[in-house]
Amino acid sequence: MDSRKLVDHTCREVNVPVNPGRIVSFSPAITEILFELGLGSNIVGISAFCQRPKEVAGIRRVGSYGSARIEVLDDVKPDLILAISGYQKEFAMKLSERYPVFIFELPSSVAGILDLVSRVGIVTGRIDESKYMSFELMKHLGSVRRHPALTGYLEIDLGGPVSFGSMSYITDALSLMGVNSIYRKTDSEWVQPNLDYVRESDPDVIFYEPKMYGRFDQEMQKKLIKDRKWEGLSAVTKGRFFVTPGKLDFFAHHGPAFIREVIPWTMERLDDL
Fold first, then answer.
1. Are residues 20 and 105 in the same domain?
2. Fewer CB atoms < 10 Å away: N or C end of the chain?
3. 144 domain residue, yes or no
4. Facing residues of 81 across strands?
5. Domains of the chain: total
């Protein structure tokens, strides 16, 4: 099979097929991008967390977000494995000892999501399609409205509370909409939040993303607020504690859906303030 050498985010040279026909994607964002580039039929394996688009339902699961089942990978015989930096980097590097693995950079900004689309297009030989897709996503960003400055706190349950600092596309997106995260000056991608600091900061608005696939009803929300002694927070007393919709990852997803779905949903919440 014809291949070319490309340098990935880890500065490794990777032998990438000119026309990859058997792709495994461990990143939900990359999986979504591949489908939109017309490569859905080329995907032979995905992680358990890849849920977009709905057509992924029939694709074999070859591992979790940070682990792989080697026997299944050997069975599907990928000619290219795609992963993202950050949490996936360590296990993806191990996989590179057995398979061609290309690791992309985890976006640190909304512009980085557009860049990821372009890079996936380059690696998979769908350059023109990725450029058109990036242009279409940029048109969505043209409708972003910047609200009067608000302080905000965003938390995702990833098996425990996680928030995001200056190096996250989430913090960047909130800033574009006029929401200054209380952790915006923390020089990291993710943050283990100090819940007392959240209370002391008294954010104007809170966004909360429950654990993927988990149940989180109003009673559970009330209990969380009570247990953390957040009843007096401005975001709570003014009805500005927003829980993300559905059971899939929402803010945690850095694919095209973040621009098409997450940002508009967030703007609608802010418009009502």
1. yes
2. N
3. no
4. 24, 101
5. 2
